[in-house]
Amino acid sequence: MGGNDVRELVDRLLAGEVPALARAITWIENEDERGIAALDALYPLTGNAYRVGISGPPGAGKSTLVDTLTERLLDAGKTVGIIAVDPTSPFTGGALLGDRIRMRGLGTRDGVFIRSMATRGGLGGLSRSAPSVAAAMDAFGHDYVIFETVGVGQSELDIADAADTTVIVLVPESGDSIQAMKAGLMEIGEIFVVNKADRDGADTTVQEITSMLALRDQGGGWSPPVLRTIASTGEGVAELAGTIEKHREFLSSRGLLTERRRAHFIAQLREIVVAELEKDLYTRLGAGAELGSFVGDVSKGHRSPYQIAREVLDGVVRDRRS
Amino acid sequence: MGGNDVRELVDRLLAGEVPALARAITWIENEDERGIAALDALYPLTGNAYRVGISGPPGAGKSTLVDTLTERLLDAGKTVGIIAVDPTSPFTGGALLGDRIRMRGLGTRDGVFIRSMATRGGLGGLSRSAPSVAAAMDAFGHDYVIFETVGVGQSELDIADAADTTVIVLVPESGDSIQAMKAGLMEIGEIFVVNKADRDGADTTVQEITSMLALRDQGGGWSPPVLRTIASTGEGVAELAGTIEKHREFLSSRGLLTERRRAHFIAQLREIVVAELEKDLYTRLGAGAELGSFVGDVSKGHRSPYQIAREVLDGVVRDRRS
Hints:
The structure is a homodimer. The first copy, chain A, is an alpha/beta fold.
């Protein structure tokens, strides 16, 4: 079952070999047996990396901001793993992901490892695998793991379910903050950044975000600051790094960091359990059997899906339980 | 178990009483037993309504376009149900949803029924319940059901998994079409609309979309047209309505409509089955038991979630199967 392969890879990963980390991540992403075995060995060695989620609407300059922030962390002697979640379509996916990595000046610096993960195509289940990829980076020794996602609507990876600190990036644009609110971003952000702050309307945007945050329940004791950055020149990025540290200290000092990580871990566990239950169902349905075989003609009125679901479950699962 | 209530409500719904439809939809959204019983009665009466999905980035003018398109359909003597999916945050949700409905001039016209559904908060599972809400509208007698969603990233309701025809709305803005591609929208659209087409850059945007579509696999035999609209004045909306009809005829004439609806139905069935399996697991875990009880201290290195998932499933589910 490749046990030796796995042990060898884990040893190399723990010795700091980057290709071993890359290989392990591929296994983990694919939920390959070897990836799962590697995780058994790696999880006990995690807990050191700080996880930062950076999200916002398309075009807000998230990648540039992540790059600039990472440069800063590297300059300070830290190491960084970046997980760039790309909701790219399969038909152009590969090329785009490749381009993105090439485009990043960071790729050649020591101490940084960038991994793009696509939300479409593949085996799905980003919310199962992205936190595990972060765990591999953590065990490898990265001081920070940064998740970068397009956050509009409920993306497959809910960044607030994976990060210790969630940063929302917006730009000064008429209605952008309203749209962010509609997309649920105002609720999950712990730090807000108005990027491209040299543009017209930056003051208005900061003002709008501040007003909207006033509506929010402040029960937690943390008032989300609203910062300004110009990612392309690096302006404001030092302050962002400092504010992330402040939030980290806030969480740690109140025991909230462990609490939050526990909740995230349980959410991930739930995803894995549900996926297993489903696999199990298909196994029980028998070789070649699919849900489709329970569905008749749908060209005209037909049975309710709840009715059919009862039939599937009563016949196959519940029967065998007794 | 409220069987009489359900029968009475279904009768009233089928007699065309709008409040009965509204009540049934609430039950369905909540996956209330009565909603599920109502669906058993309603699904056999579905199959007439044509389902149109309208998606695009925030701020593209989707609501206005949906309103104008609906006006046109109403003028032609058709009836329309609208399902507006709002990824609104819970803390402002109610107000925003209410405003949206009030803001729509349509609310007072006969033959249209608007329902907002929020992706956050509540019991979740939009991809289970939204198609069922559409089924209730279908059985009620609506000629069209329009799903309106913010489509960036993988939203909880994948519009292409619910609609017969998927329309993607963009605006002339630098990089908007690139962003749409990154968000996976280029892949699912069957009709593209450049809204606010009186703005600078409309030609460029149409050109960009057309070039990107050229990359797409054209295997299906339908080349997605790229239209221009100004939703606020109604310009181009007649052409959009005509193009939707053309796509409908394309699907029907090749038997693709039934095939597509079958695939969507199976996807919904799968969601329901998986949710049931999960409920079942919690029942078996016993009163008060939660996944969290399997998770120890996570403040430092700890076991892999896959390992814990095996423990949960081996102990509780697989044991009882034998």
